[in-house]
Write a structure and sequence with these properties.
Elements: E1 16-17, H1 24-27, E2 30-37, E3 43-50, E4 56-63, E5 74-79, H2 80-85, E6 89-90, E7 93-99, E8 106-115, E9 120-128, E10 142-145, E11 157-161, E12 170-173, E13 178-181, E14 190-194, E15 197-202, E16 205-210, E17 215-220, E18 226-235, E19 240-246, E20 253-257, E21 263-268, H3 269-279, E22 298-304, E23 309-314, E24 318-323, E25 329-334, H4 344-347, E26 364-368, E27 374-378, E28 397-404, E29 409-415, E30 429-432, E31 438-445, E32 454-460, E33 466-473, E34 482-486, E35 491-493, E36 499-509, E37 516-524, E38 528-535, E39 551-557, E40 562-566, H5 575-580, E41 591-597, E42 600-608, E43 614-622, E44 629-640, E45 647-654, E46 659-666, E47 682-687, E48 693-697, H6 706-711, E49 722-728, E50 731-739, E51 745-753
Parallel strand pairs: 5-35
Antiparallel strand pairs: 1-9, 2-3, 3-7, 4-5, 4-8, 6-7, 8-9, 10-33, 11-12, 11-34, 12-13, 14-15, 15-16, 16-17, 18-19, 19-20, 20-21, 22-23, 23-24, 24-25, 26-27, 27-28, 28-29, 30-31, 31-32, 32-33, 36-43, 36-45, 37-42, 37-44, 38-41, 38-43, 39-40, 39-42, 44-51, 45-50, 46-49, 46-51, 47-48, 47-50
């Protein structure tokens, strides 16, 4: 979509439409009649008068960063249906919440109005906010390293959880400016950013704070014996997993709830570990204790979709991995000099560490990284409630481990020890956003010493460069117990969850078996609106030679029946909808079609209208991502040659959450399906949106996470074929299939989204 430059006029605005012909943007009058302050200075509610709300598709606001900032602008997009459902729209008036404003500042806000026919227009207004009395000092850190001018850092916003005011939690940007605070009036609690809102656990209740400031009580769990939410709330398999105390056990129970607060699953670590100890001939009363003894001290969990497991951090003991469904113990990683290791029933689950690798001690915030490794913040603190207490390391460091579950080993492959100079015995966090982009929170530096104590936030980019470092005085973990990178630069309402949204594959199209064949599966219970495209001539604009001159696109269902075909996109009956979604091909000879497809398996075939071979691109766009169905598995078969004639698959993980995928490259096994000239030895390389290699594989069995491919039933039939399991943050990725040692032939590239 072409955009126009905007001119800002004080106390007014100018509007620009992106089309020359008459359209809904031209025919609809939208006037900003004023704004009122929200629950905090970081929120304002614009009042709009709209001549025809029925043709309005969505409204996006974007807050211009302060001069000199390189952060991505904070932006939110509300669908018209969402505004109606939340009670913000009473035609002809719309109340538009704008959150993330700078306090005590005249903010420039750009509005983009999008219409059903694909037209749009923009407006600019200014919002002057009052100052905010920040009790925690989030807005006034000691700057050890100001945000550099680098734009390589993958995140720009940070959720900080503390207990220093009744405005918890807070959101800051990577310039160190406070951009949002909680509106529930609660000072102590556990929090997570989920479903584009803050979920806050306090005492025996769970509340939701929307970014517009609305507070909703979603659950009261006193009837379940829960007396307190503590430490963390983390992402689960379906919803969020909270650390809770019960009337019988302290710091050793977890529950998973969905967005509405309904309890989905409970894990009682006292019961799970006691059962394992009894089964192994040990007496659990020597290790497991009822409340008020802090025998376990769970302080964080992470769900691993690749093997359907839950990894729970016990500060007192170890990291323990459970089967999500059964609760059975799968492995334990921890300090073997602590008490737990003396029990054979627990020791048998222990992963061993090779020389040079240190076990985590008193750790916090486990998470799974993009390459299926385990990331934790290692506090180096021995046990309080168990004897022997284990090692007291005396310094803290983030650590990353590669797990080989066949060999039962955990190898430390990365750390950030900072010269072993940082004493931080309690709390703290480390998270990876995009590959190798980290946010480190040292929550209580110099805790337990006579030195001044403070919290410190550090941002590292993929090159290991420090992009920012801020320090905050504190006397405990209460300032920044935990910090999480979050994405507020493209927030959509309603939420688009983790899933593969758009997929594409480029390859050589000729005759016989050497056509471009794409397959995909629509999962769930609802039909999806899918736009399929086949490009050829326009690829020459990207420096490609020998492009397919006139692609033809055909779609078949699982029974082999033709459900749609197109030669030139403008001849498709739904071409206006394709154009309205900004997906019109650049060349009239290229193909596109919109189809509403029921759940099931489909095949897309791209051929040339004539016999002249050339490079083509097949694409699939999900234009109805908010539904009860998803794009599950996608694949494309094509010819792999040399130079530009490789098989290139692109996919987008959206919208703001990570998704776990298996990517495969098949060759030799295609011969058993009657495909001639199969590629004898395919290699697979994954690139991120910046063009950096993030993973590669030649033969699938040599990958350290090959067992996860097997557990998901996705083992390639041939040992020469390739496969990778990746836990990818939102963004665009490219998979390239080549032939080892210059081999050529037909290959298949596949992307499986693990639900």
């Amino acid at each position: 979509m072409k955009t126009c430059s905007l001119i800002v006029i004080v106390a007014g605005f100018m509007v620009f439409s992106h089309r020359a012909e008459a359209n809904q943007a031209d025919d609809t009058t939208i006037t900003i009649t004023g704004h009122t302050a929200g629950a905090t200075p970081f929120i304002s509610n614009l009042t709009l008068q709209v001549s025809n709300t029925a043709v309005l598709k969505s409204i996006q606001f974007t807050i211009t960063p302060k001069p000199g900032s390189v952060t991505r602008p904070l932006s939110g997009t509300y669908s018209n249906d969402y505004l109606v459902s939340r009670g913000f729209e009473h035609s002809p008036e719309i109340i538009l919440p704008v959150y993330g404003l700078h306090a005590g500042y005249t903010n420039t806000v750009r509005l983009t109005y999008r219409f059903v026919d694909g037209s749009s227009k923009q407006a600019v207004t200014s919002i002057t906010t009052s100052t905010f009395d920040d009790p925690c000092g989030y807005d006034n850190p000691t700057v050890l390293q100001a945000r550099t001018n680098s734009t390589d850092l993958s995140y720009d916003y940070v959720l900080v959880k503390g207990g220093c005011s009744s405005f918890e939690p807070g959101i800051i940007d990577t310039d160190g400016a406070l951009r949002w605070v909680g509106t529930a009036g609660i000072s102590v609690g556990s929090v997570i950013f989920f479903d584009n809102a803050i979920y806050l656990g306090h005492a025996h209740q769970l509340s939701r704070i929307d970014l517009d400031g609305a507070v909703t009580l979603v659950g009261d769990y006193s009837s379940l014996g829960i007396v307190n939410f503590h430490h963390n709330i983390d992402r689960g398999k379906v919803g969020i997993i909270a650390d809770v105390d019960t009337t019988t056990y302290y710091n050793s129970v977890n529950i998973e709830v969905d967005a509405s607060g309904t309890v989905l699953k409970t894990w009682n670590l006292a019961d799970i570990i006691s059962a394992a100890m009894r089964a192994g001939g040990d007496d659990p009363s020597q290790f497991v204790h009822p409340t008020p003894t802090d025998w376990f001290h769970n302080n964080g969990v992470t769900y691993n979709r690749a093997d359907d497991s839950l990894i729970i951090s016990s500060r007192e003991n170890f990291l323990i991995c459970l089967d999500y469904e059964t609760g059975a113990i799968k492995w334990i990683l921890g300090d073997p000099t602590k008490q737990w290791y003396q029990f054979p029933s627990l020791r048998k689950f222990a992963l061993t560490l090779p020389p040079g690798s240190l076990p985590p001690i008193g750790q916090h915030t486990p998470s799974i990284t993009y390459d299926q490794n385990l990331l934790i913040f290692d506090n180096g603190q021995s046990s309080w409630s168990h004897f022997p207490k284990g090692e007291q390391r005396g310094y803290a460091s983030p650590r990353k481990y590669e797990l080989d579950l066949n060999a039962k080993t955990a190898t430390e492959i990365w750390n950030f020890e900072a010269g072993q100079s940082i004493v931080c015995p309690y709390c703290s966090s480390i998270y990876e956003d995009a590959p190798k982009n980290y946010l480190i929170d040292y929550s209580f530096v110099n805790g337990g010493t006579t030195l001044p104590t403070f919290a410190r936030l550090v941002g590292l980019d993929a090159a290991g460069e420090t992009i920012f470092s801020y320090q905050y005085p504190t006397d405990s973990c209460s300032k920044i117990y935990r910090a999480l990178p979050i994405h507020l630069e493209n927030t959509k309402f309603p939420t688009v969850g983790p899933q593969a949204l758009n997929l594409s594959t480029r390859g050589l199209v000729s005759g016989g078996d050497n056509v471009l064949i794409g397959g995909f599966i629509v999962t769930g219970t609802e039909s999806k609106n899918i736009v399929l495209r086949a490009l050829g001539p326009s690829l020459s604009g990207f420096g490609l030679s020998d492009v397919l001159r006139d692609p033809v696109l055909s779609v078949y269902n699982s029974s082999g029946s033709l459900v749609g075909s197109n030669d030139n996109w403008q001849s498709d009956v739904n071409h206006a909808v394709v154009e309205a979604n900004g997906l019109a091909p650049a060349n009239p000879l290229e193909s596109a079609q919109l189809r509403t497809l029921a759940p099931g398996a489909y095949t897309v075939i791209v051929t040339g209208k004539d016999a002249t071979p050339g490079i083509g691109l097949v694409e699939l766009y999900d234009i109805s991502p908010v539904s009860n169905s998803k794009l599950g598995n996608t694949s494309t078969r094509g010819s792999v040659g040399i130079g530009d004639n490789v098989l290139i698959g692109g996919f987008i993980v959206g919208d703001v959450d990570s998704a776990t995928v298996v990517v495969r490259a098949l060759g030799p096994s295609l011969a058993s399906f009657g495909v001639s000239g199969a590629l004898s030895d395919p290699t697979l390389t994954i690139y991120d949106s910046s063009g950096s290699v993030i993973a590669s594989n030649d033969n699938w069995e040599v990958d350290p996470h090959a067992i996860l491919v097997q557990k998901n039933g996705l083992t390639p039939p041939n040992a020469f074929e390739s496969a990778l399991v990746l836990h990818l943050p939102a963004g665009a990725y490219t998979a390239i299939v080549r032939g080892a040692n210059g081999a050529t032939g037909n290959a298949l590239v596949e992307v499986y989204h693990l639900d």
